[in-house]
């Protein structure tokens, strides 16, 4: 196999990539103990590989928090946005996903200037701070709270239209109150999603709905439940967000769920089984990416994971992404 990196040609004879070695690599141990294997795998993951046609148009992204007072969340913590974007760009990512305080707190011109200077897109905006900071959900028994939730998300939709970005509805879906019941809760959520869908249509924005695992929500946990909800709205601008961490808990087979719900998936949250960065848990990404190649997924895999060390974590995730998504070396 001939490996091409920048202007130089490096030849390696590799008849078979040992699966245990790859799992060992992804466990992260080799980053510290075997620099020769590290360099080889870096070459394999970063380069263009002769003999493998790169038919993938999947793109990579990283989730950044824009809120200083929120910590211990699966985002790169609040900091100097310009410096963070430069780091992300230098590692070869395609885009950022942003977790803002609110739509009104976002400086469109500043974010555009910084992301464009670093050759990054803004692929999506999260809305979870509406619940975390303001207690807003789309299924609150209090009608004024539901109205506030719709207003909050609407402001982010307007901002997202400037970037051609998706808008995520995850934790703001709320949960089922035992005194209310699932039927009424579903009705409230459907009504709110229809209203938001109409607003999003006006701004040419697509919404992505994120099922959340049972330990964080008692409502919409699986991709199948998400599809049922989307069908009930009758909207054509609401897609699914497939979060690999939540799916690892809820789906019998992550790869089969991806294949079965292919036409609904609009965005993917990229994380390992333990919600650390890809490459730091035990998810078999060869199967995940084989499914994504099979359905010809064209969107973003956005890292939403707990940060242990920004630089090391970003290296792990982009190595996994490049090996499986761009070169498709290890899923053949």
Labels describing this entry:
42% helix; single chain; 332 residues; alpha/beta; disordered N terminus; eight-stranded parallel β-barrel
Topology:
Layout: E1 2-5, E2 8-11, H1 19-26, H2 30-33, H3 35-46, E3 48-49, E4 59-65, H4 81-90, E5 95-99, H5 108-117, E6 121-125, H6 129-134, H7 143-160, E7 166-169, H8 182-202, E8 207-209, H9 223-233, E9 238-243, H10 244-250, H11 254-260, E10 265-270, H12 285-294, E11 300-303, H13 310-326
Parallel strand pairs: 4-5, 4-11, 5-6, 6-7, 7-8, 8-9, 9-10, 10-11
Antiparallel strand pairs: 1-2, 1-3
Helix pairs in contact: 3-13, 7-8, 8-9, 11-12
In short:
The protein is an alpha/beta fold. It is 42% helix and 15% strand. It folds into 2 domains: 1-51, no CATH class; 54-326, Divalent-metal-dependent TIM barrel enzymes (TIM Barrel, Alpha-Beta Barrel).
